[in-house]
Design goal:
56% helix; 4% strand; three-stranded antiparallel beta sheet; DNA polymerase, domain 1
Length: 305
């Protein structure tokens, strides 16, 4: 393939993108999924620039406005367009920091306005029904109950749940050490119900499956670590069994964890720490949920609402 201008010295794919991605991994410690997302957005921009024989070291604010406008014209949502702009901002700041460019063309570019949708969550009754759905008289049902209890008790992400290490579990004091985004570790409490079911799983199920001395806490019947995809299928299955009509995912249970804590008076900063959010504004979305829920309860109950 003939080397184009966009992949030479001032190019993106051939020179600067690999250096930038290495910077994200080594210096900023971002997760594999985040780096992959940045890579995809920037590769798309590189192809757009290449078609116009552009140079990443020379493109200006007008070029970026044109690019983002074309993305929206193709039906890209405001959320996806905002993510694309965030990737460009980070990339061009990197180029300025390494003195490859003198100015950042993303300055003063406005991000597409986002209408923040409130996260979906389950009621207390729905959570109870979901947790009771696995057939705990069977080994895998008992494991699934332990996993669901852990997910609701800690609010961890599904990737964090399936990668939990046995060595990071402390049943007696009741907490787990979680390795989150950017390899950041946090300690999350584990409630009494979750401790009970995880304890039963450790005694009755895990020893018969652990043929290879696995480090992960939750294992398949073959003794391999549980996968994200398998657990997504599992929670959907139990959601149907529990009579939950709305689409169910591990993240809905994470949202339920945060919402129920705040409804019962938990401190927002404490919830932020347990969820592993870097920015408090990410956690504040749950305060909107609780206010909206309070309004609905008021409208239903107050005689002059």
């Amino acid at each position: 393939m003939t080397e184009s201008r966009a992949t030479r010295g001032g190019g993106l794919a051939g020179t600067w993108l690999p250096e930038y991605l290495a910077h994200l991994v080594v210096e900023r410690g971002l997760s594999v999924h985040t780096v992959a997302s940045y890579r995809g957005d920037l590769q798309q921009f590189g192809r757009w620039l290449d078609k116009r024989q552009g140079d990443v070291l020379e493109c200006d604010r007008a070029d970026l406005r044109r690019y983002l406008s074309e993305l929206r014209g193709k039906g890209l949502s405001s959320r996806s367009a905002a993510r694309a702009l965030a990737a460009l901002r980070s990339f061009f700041r990197f180029l300025v920091n390494v003195e490859a460019r003198r100015e950042d063309p993303t300055e003063e570019l406005e991000s597409p306005r986002l209408l923040r949708s409130l996260p979906r969550f389950l009621s207390f009754q729905q959570v109870d029904a979901l947790l009771a759905a696995p057939p705990t008289e069977r080994p895998l049902g008992l494991r699934d109950r332990a996993m669901l209890e852990t997910l609701y008790a800690t609010g961890v992400r599904v990737s964090e749940l399936v990668s939990l290490k046995l060595a990071n579990l402390r049943l007696d004091p009741g907490f787990v050490r979680v390795l989150g985004k950017g390899s950041k570790e946090r300690v999350v409490p584990l409630g009494s119900s979750a401790r009970e079911w995880v304890g039963r799983y450790l005694e009755e199920v895990r020893p018969r499956h652990d043929r290879q001395r696995a480090a992960e806490l939750f294992l398949t019947s073959r003794g391999e670590p549980m996968t994200r995809q398998a657990f997504w299928y599992t929670i959907k299955k139990y959601g149907r069994r529990a009579g939950i009509a709305s689409p169910l995912s591990p993240h809905v249970l994470r949202h339920s964890f945060a919402t129920h804590l705040l409804e019962h008076g938990a401190d927002l900063r404490a919830v932020q720490a347990m969820l592993g959010h870097t920015d408090i504004s990410t956690t504040e979305i749950y305060t909107h949920v609780t206010r909206e829920r309070l309004r609905q309860l008021y409208d239903r109950a107050h005689p002059r609402a």
